[in-house]
Amino acid sequence: MRGSTEYAAISELARRILRSRGVNIIHNGILSSEIEYLSNELSDSAPKIIFGIKSKITVTDDIYFEMENSKNGIISTNPPDSLEVVWVKKRENSWNNLTTKIIELGRAGYPGCIGCAGPAADEPWNEKRSREEK
Q1: Where does residue 98 rank: exposed (0-12), middle (13-18), buried (19+ CB within 10 A)?
Q2: pTM value?
């Protein structure tokens, strides 16, 4: 997956989450314990990152990320209407790949580190191009 459009979208969503002051993860309830684990892992491994992760349960097959001061994201089989929302195409390992990336970047010190998120992090995200390449 490295170098792919999917990996780039996952990385962008992870960066948005870590840049935010808080995130609501809206899901169908299956991820509740995994969201709690993610929150605890970030608190333990990256204590300089101060924001809240809240779990909101609704009837959906998608996983929606609503950020306080950043643009939103979604893991879904279908792209959202807005190009402001980063879309990660839903696959079997999308959630696990995202949480791994969030923890990896958090441990590296993102967003306060220089260069730890790779060269793509310094470029503006192009959601339209990302969707065209999927």
Answers
A1: buried
A2: 0.89
